[in-house]
Amino acid sequence: MTSEPENQWFCGFSADNIDVTVTIRIGLDWWAHLGGELCFIEVMTALIRACISPGTADTANHVYAISDMQTIVSTQAVGEDYNVALLQRSQLPWLMLMARHYCDQLAE
Length: 108
Prior knowledge:
By secondary structure, this protein is of the alpha+beta class. It folds into two domains: 26 residues, no CATH class; 63 residues, no CATH class. It has four helices and two strands. The chain has a two-stranded antiparallel ribbon.
């Protein structure tokens, strides 16, 4: 072992003249390592564009079967000038729902 994993998120070892290092990455750190700072939102946007057809957005007073779904899919923080070339307004709640699976809370 060249670096013991105790009380840290990485370790390393050498074997047959090959050096190996391992790092555990979680959350946005993993996404940034995977493809850069915008990787998370780019992958989520691509998934929504590929899977969800644009349509009519739910009304603000829509009642969902899941009690906290309205807060999860809320698009109140998205400005009216949002560039709809990326996702249509009706697709934004799906983006919020997908993103919520990868984080504890959504914040600006």
